[in-house]
Amino acid sequence: MLDHGGNLDQAMRRFGGRPDDWIDLSTGINRRPYPVPELALRHWTALPSRSDIERLQDAARQAYATPARVLALPGAQAAIQLLPHWLVRGGARILSPTYHEYAEVLRAAGWDVRDVADLDALAGADLAIVVNPNNPDGRVHDSSALLALLPRVGRLVVDESFADAMPGLSLAPQAGRSSLLILRSLGKFYGLAGLRLGFVLGPETDLAALARLAGPWPVSGPAIAIGRQALWDRAWAEATSARLAEEVPRLDGMAQNAGWRLVGGTLLFRLYEVGDAAAAQERLARAKIWSRIFRDRPGWLRLGLPGDAAEWARLAAALSR
After folding, report:
1. Per residue in 116-132, pLDDT tens?
2. 93 vs 91: CA distance, rounded Å
3. Residue 148: how many CB atoms within 10 A of its CB?
4. Dihedral, 111, 116, 121, 124 alpha carbons, nearest 10
5. d(C-alpha 65, C-alpha 134), whole Å
6. How many angstroms separate the CA atoms of 50 and 237, rounded?
7. 263-317 tens-digit pLDDT
8. DSSP secondary-structure letter at 19?
9. Is pLDDT at 2 greater than 70 in this prediction?
10. Contact partners, residue 8, CB within 8 Å, separation at least 6
11. 225: Cβ contacts below 8 Å, ≥ 6 apart
């Protein structure tokens, strides 16, 4: 497995403790997750039916306000794994720095992969990839700039895994256009990463090909039941977006008081220039707070937002030391 946030097992090997002792802020996953309902036994014991999966996909279509077909998969990562295997191998360009699984998966499948620094440099690619908002720096691109790329690339993949709190940014209303694929994740905003549920939005022919690769039961019965309820609950989503928007300045203020400089971020995570990120990570880890650092950017440290008041207090105390 590549270096990702969420590697709490490594933190515990170095600094001790049990999982419940730690506040894991390394992932950007919402620390106040959607309240998981009690499930009837049949969701665990029966194979998901086609109608079950279709109802989940209908809920996603409503939540994302898209006219396009939606395909449910076990996380956005599953879509990334499938990408190189249903397209004709060619040249891929990735707007970087970004989530590094794209480059690794494509190179492993024999694609010619180039990292580029701006949208215009994606032109001419058989496969162009943009994460919007970007992970880890939160860089965003408006819809018009992304749509202008469509006639200049073979296919454009826009990863919107962190877009739930910024619905106005999403290209989902434009999904269905030829050569455009959009990835969404339930794990980040809803705080249910262990559910392993994500979606691809796109043209009928593309999603049919992906569905054949994914097989007849791409997601589990519990994921279908919980995902449907979460996606239909727009009141929870709106309240959560509002809460996150209020809490982000609080985290930025605490970081500024610690002498850190904001690089960027989203409503689910913030990226700071801290000087010596390894030392800063270790300082937080002594207080059983885990963060994300980057091998190729020794000054960068990423933090998600704490969940409840006790977590905020622990982070404040650790940063003030």
Report:
1. 999 999 999 999 999 99
2. 7
3. 12
4. 0
5. 21
6. 27
7. 999 999 999 999 999 999 999 999 999 999 998 899 999 999 999 999 999 999 9
8. G
9. no
10. 19, 22, 24, 26, 290
11. 37, 39, 40, 43
Write out the two tokens for 244: 């996150």
Selection from 19, 47, 94 nearest residue 218 by Cα: 47
Look-up of token digits 């008081």: 257
Instruction: Specify the 3-state DSSP secondary structure of 194.
Output: helix
Check if the beta carbon of residue 237 is closer than 8 Å to that of residue 59: no
* Local structure of residue 214 (DSSP, 8 states): H
What is the C-alpha end-to-end distance of the chain, expressed in Å? 33
**Domains of the chain, each with CATH number or no CATH:** 8-33+238-320 (3.90.1150.10), 42-232 (3.40.640.10)
Q: Could you give the 3-state DSSP secondary structure of residue 14?
A: helix
Asked whether 179 and 155 are in contact (CB, 8 A), the reply is yes
- Amino acid at site 266: T
CA 94 to CA 194: how far, in whole Å? Answer: 27
Name the band, by pLDDT with cuts 50, 70 and 90, for residue 321. Answer: confident
Query: Reduced to 3 states, what is the DSSP secondary structure of residue 155?
Result: strand
Spacing of C-alpha 294 from chain mean position: 17
**Quick one: which H or E segment has residue 292?**
strand 292-294
H-helix segments, the chain: 8-15, 42-45, 50-63, 76-86, 101-108, 143-147, 204-214, 221-232, 234-257, 277-286, 309-320
